[in-house]
């Protein structure tokens, strides 16, 4: 396995890092030895995983890890999880792939505890950074537990997410586990544009807020309406009861 930090260390100290280029350098090294890595990719939602799977599935074995205890309410969490699972299955079917899907436990109290004192932060501020770190940490731990070569996140596909903050957090966590972090800036190379095209092609639900109760309140999100739509979707989904039984509630969300 190759640690991508070696490519960063060759750059000037004050040079802004293009994490997309770092990933490309890493992929070139894999290709030299015909190495096909096993990657566990954290995904916040199906839309963010679209282009990521298209990009990486040709050169690696992937598991999508849905670990997002920041999502409120619970019915919306279940809906997004089911939409993610459905997309992975349809992507596999259309492209003859074997992407795996794994869902983490739903523990909203963990998120609330992590961001305590940052409830009033603006979106994109420290509260979001803590949330990135929380989900990346869960992904790193799970990837190490299951014997993956790398852990990664699809969060960098979003134009609203700070790729530098996400990648720096990933490298910090790399020092705490026995596997490597996979750097990225998936929004580059028209990645975000391609994700929108794929969402239309696969008819994927695109949520109107990140999931966080605090950011949603700032946006004026109507939770009753969100909950109703999610509940209706979930009750009509063939796998609802199966996945509902797998969710361990980690505590009530405020």
* Spatial strand arrangement across the major sheet: 3-2-1-4-5
Provide mean pLDDT, rounded. 93
Report the count of strand segments.
Answer: 5
**What is the level-2 CATH architecture name?**
3-Layer(aba) Sandwich
What's the CATH topology name?
Rossmann fold
- The portion of residues assigned to helices is 40-55%
Report how far apart the termini are: 43 Å
Describe this entry's structure for a reader:
The protein has 254 residues and is of the alpha/beta class. The protein has one domain: Rossmann fold (3-Layer(aba) Sandwich). The chain is 51% helix and 8% strand. The protein has a five-stranded parallel β-sheet, with helices on both faces. Strand 4, helix 7 and strand 5 form a beta-alpha-beta unit. Helix 3 runs parallel beside helix 4 and helix 3 packs across helix 8.
């Amino acid at each position: 396995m190759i640690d991508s930090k070696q490519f960063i260390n060759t750059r000037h100290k004050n040079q802004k890092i293009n994490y997309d280029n770092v990933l490309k350098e890493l992929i070139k090294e894999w290709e030299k030895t015909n190495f096909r890595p096993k990657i566990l990719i954290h995904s916040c939602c199906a839309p963010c995983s679209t282009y990521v799977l298209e990009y990486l599935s040709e050169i690696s074995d992937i598991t999508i890890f849905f670990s997002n205890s920041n999502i409120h309410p619970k019915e919306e969490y279940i809906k997004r999880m089911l939409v993610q699972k459905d997309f992975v299955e349809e992507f596999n079917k259309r492209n003859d792939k074997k992407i795996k899907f794994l869902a983490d436990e739903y523990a909203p109290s963990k998120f609330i505890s992590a961001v305590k004192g940052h409830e009033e932060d603006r979106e994109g501020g420290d509260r979001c950074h803590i949330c990135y770190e929380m989900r990346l940490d869960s992904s790193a731990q799970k990837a190490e537990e299951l014997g993956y070569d790398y852990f990664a996140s699809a969060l960098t596909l979003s134009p609203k997410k700070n790729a530098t903050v996400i990648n720096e957090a990933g490298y910090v966590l790399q020092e705490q586990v026995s596997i490597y972090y996979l750097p990225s800036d998936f929004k580059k190379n028209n990645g975000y544009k391609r994700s929108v095209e794929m969402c239309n092609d696969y008819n994927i639900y695109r949520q109107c807020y990140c999931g966080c109760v605090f950011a949603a309140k700032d946006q004026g999100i109507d939770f009753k309406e969100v909950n109703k739509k999610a509940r209706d979707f979930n009750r009509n989904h063939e796998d609802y009861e199966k996945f509902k039984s797998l969710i361990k509630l980690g505590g009530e969300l405020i």
